[in-house]
Amino acid sequence: MPIFVALGPLSVTGLDAQSQALAPGKRRDLLAVLLRRRNAWVSVEELAEALWDRAAYPSSISGSIKTYVHQLRKVLPPEAAGERLAGRRGAYRLTVNPGELDIDLFVSLVEQGVKARTEKRPEEAVTIQRRALTLWQGTPDEDVVDVVAAQHLQEVRLTARYCLADALLERGETTEAIIVLRAVLSEDPLREPAWERLLLAQQAAGWQVDALANYEQARLVLLENFGAEPGTRLQDIYRTLLSQTADAPAPTVKNPVSPSAASGPRVRLRLSLAAVLVVLLFAVTGSAGASVTEVGSPAATSPPVTGGPTPKILFGLGADAIPAERSPLIASGIGMITTWYHKSDQLDQFEGWRADVIPRIYGYGRAMHLVVATWGDGESIDTRFGCACGQAYPLSSEFMVDMRRLARAFAGKADGPPLYISMFHGLQKMSCANTGYLADAATTNYYMALKERYFELVELFHRQAPNARIGLNWDGWTASYDEPDIGAGRSMFQYFVEAMSVSDFQSFNAFEKQGNAEDIRQMVDVLGRYGPVMVAYFGPHEDPVDIYLKDLRETFTPTALAGLTTKGLFAFSFRDDDVQRAAPEVMTLTTEIVRNYGHPAPRGS
Predict the structure, then answer these.
(1) Arithmetic mean of pLDDT over the chain
(2) Are 377 and 393 in contact, with CB atoms under 8 Å apart?
(3) Whole-model pTM above 0.70?
(4) Distance (Å, rounded) from C-alpha 198 to C-alpha 27?
């Protein structure tokens, strides 16, 4: 791995072999200048011009630079062939060997990947380009590279992503190629070669309808921004797709956005694209201008034009990582993939994911989220607190063995994207009484044993998975009522204060059929006193579209979300995208919300 990192915040792997970001200051500025002129002697005069305005030169330029050189040498690793930061009269030189600066390594790997694909070695090309792209941690440091070099690096990155997509297609991994290309277009929808590759990948996957609709979106984007039709290559691909689907009937769409879309006659696909599918695809990847808000989502979801900064949270998706990764919502800015654990039968699958699925998700900079949801009939259990009644599995020794396997399967690097674990899904339902903490002695004993087990789990996940963050999971209606006599509703929280205090975050579900916006507000208000809060599972029971829309519209306004984030809300995970796929207006609204208010998972957060 590189010693010097400049594709993102400037950092260096020092004498202790630990990577550390350099705080703003003259030491950091000095390193940036020397990296820009690496392996060359840089005069004191040149360094002075980079470090100070001429009017602010110190009284002793040479002495001041010597001080900063001395400070910098303390954090730099040794250089095998000589002195890492050498000095001679009036000049200094930083030795950087091949592969030690991530910028140089990145460019070299991309070139190797392109060569491998050109020479018909797609497997090798995929491996190399994925390694190259993991080096990209953000915009190149502007103090290390100038504007021209930064633009060049952006183009090199685009080359790597195109090469990766092409090699994936050659290997038959069409879905993976589509994910890569959607990510490119979500950042820059004006890249016509990316549209060409996306249509070809969807054609190869057998998704002709999606490909045709994507062409319509590309055409509208290009007309809006350049006043020009798509190029010959893109048009040729479109005509080929049309010839393959000319006789296919138009798809029926549940709950269409406009009455005309619902009542219009079924026609050939080429006549229906503008009426139905364009609406859907504006929701999938968005478009420049006001087109998203014009297809039916409320203006209230738009971020404020004036005032404070737009509130941002981490959006998650899924009950299963595989379909979640394939969702069109991913391109909107989903920063977290959620997977549910129910029973030990799943562990073999998750351990298999260790080879590809999990590294891929972390490699794209997304967090992972595990909901540990054990279901079963309550039974009598002997505990050290006395006879208890509830689910036996979470208190068994088998459960701890399974959780160790689960932690190891999903473990990531300590400074990489986080792994969030929402433990004991809706813990109120796990006892036999299914009511309050004080319902009866057996219920109280069960919760006491469950809390003891939770403390063991916190230690286990922190030890086995360096990036793990663990939190208790509650049902979202808990704060909506109070029964102090049996320790139910709001009164139940007091019995879990110690457990919530050792948690890394707080977690709850919102799934009520009648509506969840008020429950979300009340739960964040209570749980936010103990740490950051995540909505671990949002999805009204039985998927009523009107309630789904109402919940989103009431929760995701600038004012409402600002209030929630102020009190601790940091993440919100959708159960799946079933409602969005069935109802275009829900897809449109969800996409707009994620784009406006979402941010990716910060590494090591």
Answers:
(1) 84
(2) no
(3) no
(4) 45
